[in-house]
Specification:
The protein has helices at 16-24, 41-49, 63-73, and strands at residues 3-8, 31-36, 53-56, 80-84. A four-stranded parallel sheet has the order 3-2-1-4, sandwiched between helices. 32% of the residues lie in helices and 23% in strands.
């Protein structure tokens, strides 16, 4: 089954690249997207480096709003959404 990881990025998280590298190292290839309500140059630079799309939650809010935005508002057809919580480093 094809699936997509949605990373909710907040400002210049020091864990963002580690999370992305961990997801890229998975044995099953997956799509990855970044969702944020705090877009900035750092997020765009990291996304560009790894060729990941960035989706901006213009409504703002908190991390819960960003997760809901990622789950609800992205059209990925039949893809199954999984999430990567930056507060847990996604290194497991």
């Amino acid at each position: 089954m094809k699936h997509t990881f949605a990373i909710c990025a907040y400002k210049a998280s020091p864990y963002l690249e580690a999370c992305i590298r961990s997801l890229l190292a998975q044995t099953v290839p997956s799509d990855i997207i970044l969702c944020t309500s705090t877009p900035n140059d750092y997020i765009y630079q990291v996304a560009d480096k790894y060729q990941i799309d960035v989706y901006v939650n213009e409504a703002g809010g908190n991390i819960s709003a960003d997760w809901n935005f990622a789950y609800r508002d992205k059209d990925v057809g039949s893809a199954f959404w999984q999430s990567c919580n930056l507060s847990k480093l996604c290194l497991q």
